[in-house]
Specification:
3-stranded antiparallel sheet; BirA Bifunctional Protein, domain 2; 19 strands; 4 domains; 7-stranded mixed sheet; 14 helices; alpha+beta; Phenylalanyl-tRNA Synthetase, Chain B, domain 1; about 30% helix
């Protein structure tokens, strides 16, 4: 800036010194507009002490006289800025409420005085604090409370345990939220803490990935429902790798998996609670989501039993565990272009589509140079929160009375999902039925009929069931399933 005409050389005889302060906002906008950065601009955009300009000018003049042997011709023009000191109101009760301490007004005043502040007025609870001009970061009461905590010492502040409470009038029911002192957390925030705890208990590792991805990665993961026009792009990207806000967690997860595979680690299981961004017509949307990704083997390398690789039912099991916190949780066939056409499903809660689960399409994996099978799920947290009910019981007392099981084989259409039969079992409302699970599945390649063998477990927590009670309950359950199968209609009769 200024080039050779304004530079100082060995022949320079006269030097004009100027000390000034500039508006931080205008400096920042001008620097961005002309795309030119300097050391002084970086200082001024953060704001400096406006009352220090004259002092800085006098110090520079003194150093030129002392070190370079120069002579001062005197100030040509001076204009000291008339900057009034900022005053912030501080309440003693608010200080102690935020910090959980019991500081007196004298202790608070003494701590602030050590920072060069002045008490200009005060009463029993409130003080007017005059802020020095060089502390342009102190704008509100909470900023002063932070300074008090820093000087008083965080180790001197009392530790207040976080205790569970029950929220009122929220979709969470009795899901425990957190209470710190008398300040309650937002129910949605508590819900995300609850989900994070579930994912950690399922042995998933928490991943933290940046919201920004490259345009190249964004184009690879674009599809018909979310094309390039829906991506939110940054105006001033610091690098090509961080130029677009991701519209899904999938590209970030594939980058993490690809990097770990290159480093020799292919057995991965992770989750992230974050946000995605995209354009909806002309409105930018920020959506909180939960993402889960699996790749490689479940248990690493071990000689016995042999390690099994993750499959579609592995990630579905994780989603089932999360689905226990909701009402009417189910799956339906889907056609997402980035998922394997035969190993994917939409996730529903209370009849609303809240996400997708499945195996990532091999062509997309090839674009990231991933040779392992990858399974991915993404759930919209706002919809999951709305559909949430009370959390499942973590500890269920086992019955001291014996159980009895019965098997039933159903021949149904190959297009009928097992979730349809599960709904029939739920509608049967048999109190003695403790569990129902598929133990065998058989289907000939050329047939459109599959044969499911389901095992039903009957048990009471109050008494030993008689043979007549078990048979009567099993007959009712079978009748509910048979009625549901008769009512089934294939969504595409031509393929049946």
């Amino acid at each position: 800036m200024g080039s050779l005409d304004s530079s100082v050389t060995k022949n320079t005889q006269a030097v004009l010194l100027e000390a000034a302060t500039f508006n931080p906002q205008k400096i920042r906008k001008t620097m961005q507009a002309v795309d030119l950065r300097s050391e002084s601009a970086l200082r001024f955009e953060k704001g400096i002490d406006p009352n220090a300009a004259v002092l800085a000018l006098e110090m520079a003049t003194h150093l030129l006289q002392k070190i370079a042997g120069g002579t001062c011709e005197g100030p040509i023009f001076t204009s000291s800025p008339d900057v009034s000191l900022r005053s912030v109101s501080l309440r003693k009760s608010r200080v102690n409420q935020i910090l959980g301490a019991a500081l007196s007004a004298a202790e608070i005043d003494e701590l602030l005085t050590r920072l060069g502040m002045k008490i200009t007025a005060k009463d029993a609870n409130t003080s007017a604090i005059s802020i020095p001009s060089f502390r342009n970061d102190l704008l509100a009461e909470i900023d002063l409370i932070e300074e008090i905590a820093r000087l008083y010492g965080y180790d001197h502040l009392p530790s207040t345990p976080i205790t569970p409470i029950t929220p009122v009038d929220t979709p969470l029911g009795s899901i425990p939220t957190k209470q710190l002192g008398k300040i309650h957390h937002d129910p949605y925030f508590s819900f995300t803490l609850f989900l994070r705890k579930i994912c950690l208990q399922l042995s998933l590792h928490e991943w933290i990935t940046p919201d920004l991805i490259s345009e190249q990665i964004a184009k690879i993961t674009a599809h018909e429902a979310l094309d390039e026009s829906a991506f939110l792009k940054t105006l001033y990207a610091k690098s090509e790798d961080h130029a677009v806000l991701r519209a899904s967690l999938l590209p970030s997860f594939l980058q993490v998996i690809a990097q770990n595979i290159r480093l020799g680690q292919s057995n991965l299981q992770g989750f992230e609670i974050s946000k995605v961004h995209f354009w909806n017509d002309d409105t930018p949307v920020e959506m909180p989501v939960l993402g889960i990704a699996l790749s490689g083997k479940k248990n690493g390398v071990f000689w016995k039993p042999p390690s099994e690789k993750y499959d579609f039912f592995s990630i579905k099991g994780y989603i089932d565990a999360i689905g226990k916190t909701t009402q009417n949780f189910s799956y339906a066939p889907s056609k997402h272009p980035h998922m394997h056409p035969e190993r994917q499903a939409n996730i529903f809660a209370k009849g609303q589509d809240i996400g997708v689960v499945g195996e990532v399409h091999p062509e997309l994996l090839e674009a990231f140079s991933i040779k392992e099978r990858v399974f991915f799920a993404e759930i919209q947290l706002a919809h999951l929160f709305t559909a949430s009910s009370k959390p499942p019981e973590m500890v269920i007392s086992p019955s001291s009375f014996p159980s009895s099981f019965r098997d039933k084989t159903c021949s149904v259409s190959a297009l009928m999902p097992y979730g349809y039969i599960e709904k029939a079992l739920q509608s049967a409302s048999c109190p003695l039925l403790q569990n129902a699970s598929v133990i065998d599945l058989f289907q000939k390649p050329e047939e459109n009929i599959k044969h499911l063998t389901i095992r039903f477990v009957y048990q009471s927590k109050e008494r030993t069931l008689s043979m007549e009670e078990i048979e009567k309950a099993h007959e009712d359950v079978q009748q509910s399933i048979d009625d549901a199968i008769k009512k089934w209609r294939d969504p595409n009769p031509e393929t049946a």
